[in-house]
Amino acid sequence: GRLVRAAMPLFLTNLRMWDRLAADRVDHFVAISQTVRQRIAKIYRRDSTIIYPPVDTSRFAPVARSDDYYLIVGRLVPYRRIDILIEAFNKMQRPLLIAGDGRDRERLQALAGPTIEFLGYVPDQDLPDIMSRCRAFMWPGEEDFGISPIQAMAAGRPVIAYAAGGALETVIPGRTGALFYEQSAGAIVDAVEQFDESAMDPYAISTCAAQFDTGEFKRKMQQFVDKKLEQRKRELQSGPQQALTADS
Predict the structure, then answer these.
(1) Cα 99 to Cα 105, 121, 155, distances in angstroms
(2) I need a labelling partner for 180 at 20 to 30 A (CA). Which of 4, 22, 210, 240 fits?
(3) Distance in angstroms (rounded) separating the CA atoms of residues 196 and 108
(4) CA dihedral (158, 161, 163, 168) positive or negative
């Protein structure tokens, strides 16, 4: 609306000022991916340590066979670019299951052809089964990290993802999936038709996903905190001696 558009610049200016002041009070930054690390460096002029967010990979496990469908799981919002995914699968006439709900669902359903099925909200307890049986998990959007692709890999399934954001750090071409380098329906068609999921080892994929498990996150975060506390302790202990040396 016109009123909101008129007020937005002032609101955003104040928000940026607050954010800048809040960032100056931060001792150490932790980023969830290289993408976020670069953003912190650009906006705040600060370095950060990458610690990937926790994913409960123990809930998922490979199964002996897959069924004939591709899958995407997530909120149905525009930036996820599910629209170009639908366009691609309409052209290929391949089965695609879309699990999740959101404000973009009505528009996306209007685009979908007969080989595409909307599952709506899928309970957490049902995700391992539906993920473990897909031919490949699709990820056409750009995310800072991306939890769902890791869940699919933990279930032993390869991921075909747009080469941007967190996917660059989690999807290993030829080992855990494939990347396409243009955010378009044509690039998705090429990636899917050239990809041979039978050449992927589900158990090797699942092993790769284990590095993002909740236990790894806790271990790395604890190590990070302990290290920074020890550094701060040494700084405080050496402070008086440094001041004495300076006075001398």
Answers:
(1) 11, 6, 16
(2) 210
(3) 28
(4) negative
